[in-house]
Amino acid sequence: xxxxxxxxxxxxxxxxxxxxxxxxxxxxxxxxxxxxxxxxxxxxxxxxxxxxxxxxxxxxxxxxxxxxxxxxxxxxxxxxxxxxxxxxxxxxxxxxxxxxxxxxxxxxxxxxxxxxxxxxxxxxxxxxxxxxxxxxxxxxx
Length: 141
What we know:
Blueprint: H1 18-39, H2 44-72, H3 77-99, H4 103-107, H5 111-134, H6 136-140
């Protein structure tokens, strides 16, 4: 599973919050860019910059998501924060392995990170959308 089309944004990754969904899409695009750069053996600097971009997008997304959760009194914010810190750490580790030329041997490329993030999107983040839908009248009044 190393082809570009294996990494895609699918409808099950949506949580039905426009801002969150747009950021999820941008994160998946960043992963696609990294995968493409690795598969086509682009210059190391291009790949390193792609990792920095991914980290920045993910950190910004997690901050925005936590801000939204806090503003609506979302009950799962603590677990989300822990998951977000873990995911950012995994991006950093993967970037470091790339810099040390160990990305393929230790991590199997970018696919495991893609799977971690998409699992987070379809489980924990999906719950945010459900919570917002269920209690929408509280936030608009």
